[in-house]
User: Fold these one by one.
Assistant:
Number 1:
Amino acid sequence: MTMTSLHAELSPDWQAGIASGPVVAVLLHGYGSNERDLAGLAPALRLALPWVSLRAPIALGHGGTAWFAITTPGNPDAAPVVDATNAIWAWIDSHVDPGAKIVPIGFSQGGLMASQLLRTRPERVVAPVILGGFVLGAPQPGDHQLTGNRPPVFWGRGADDRVITVPAIDRTAEFLPRHSSLLERVYPGLAHGINGAELADVRDFLLTHVGADAVYEPVTGG
């Protein structure tokens, strides 16, 4: 595997230079994918926030990338995860106004990275969304603060997901209720993916915890 520079796909309304505004969404894809994958979530979620979809830094070949190598499935080494977390924050620090809050939305490995943003700079993150993901086992700098603040977190996963290991799910199910005001949803019949019911739940979650400006109203016929 070779390292690549962190590349980004930006929302059409992203202003040149540093993004301003009160809230910016950061989309984080899963293992073997790239920045174009979760960019498709933005219209599906009717996301009205400026957003960036970041490409993970490890090149796997054939356009696929990863945030960290898979050693023990569901229990990654902490150091590579910390490196990937620092790379995401470095991009945000260079391209997003320091006064803007971050809404991380991640799938699978990207879901872990969304939780990492919360656990490393909790004062900067609002309403993180973890889709088919899990949390790192190693303690992180913001964990103590999260225990006191209990920010809202969405964790959705498929009941038939066989990719994320049981120990990873158990670890996440123990950690998140103690460090967040958790909204957990498990979707019957869903494997390692995202379905329409989950997208609807994420939209409602963002409306509740980010505000009415987070998503577009659906277009109805007149």
Note: Residues 114 and 202 are 14 Å apart (CA to CA).
Number 2:
Amino acid sequence: MKDRFDLLIFDWDGTLVDSIDWIVHCVQTAAKKCDCAIPSAQAAKDIIGLSIQEAMNTLFPNVDAAIQKQMISHYSELFFSKQTTASDLFSGVEEMLVELKQQGYQLAVATGKTRSGLDKVLHGTGIGDFFCITRCADETASKPHPLMLEQIMQHTGISPERTLMIGDSVHDLQMAQNAQISSIGVTCGAHSAEILQQYQPLFCIEQTTDLLELITG
């Protein structure tokens, strides 16, 4: 795949940052605090990547808006009680980003996080400067709608044919399909290779850092 792509768009949670188990814990704890049925770990993983409101609608479709709002508040408070730092990045991610930038790739992030949430973790991990643009669910459409990818491509001036999405969830890969761009699935996050393969990624890799060997030769 060398020289096939110019723009690499990464999901955040479960792709660059090892945060899936913490998110599951926060979702389950928020549900318990609101006396709602506690979702299974896999059910909580299945909504990672969606906007927080879409996630709540999916997990708790029969819970009224006021209770959902309380759960979102509990979730956010607990999630940010633990500071995200460079130690939360998957091993080798920062070095991978350095190498990709040096080779001339434009890098971006497309995430279901809010803007304030992403800005906090970008600052905490210290990798924000690697990305030419980041897009969040509260400033565009939630995954799997393709709008955030389309906005990133418009900003960079790079065509769909030269753009690659890298993500760990079905929402990432379905979004890529909807935007008519290629994707690579990573299995270190929310979903297995068997599930991700349904969305026809070019490859499924175990760790995001395996991307380097694939695209740089």
Note: The chain is about 45% helix and 10% strand.
